[in-house]
Amino acid sequence: MIAEQYAFYPALIAGLNGTSAVLLLIGRYLIARGKVAAHRACMIAAVVSSALFLACYLYFHYHVGDIRFLGDHFWHVIYLIVLIPHVTLAIVIVPMVIVTLVQGLRGRYDKHRAIARWTWPLWIYVSVTGVLVYFMLYQWFPHS
Question: What is the value of pTM for the model shown?
Answer without folding.
Answer: 0.88
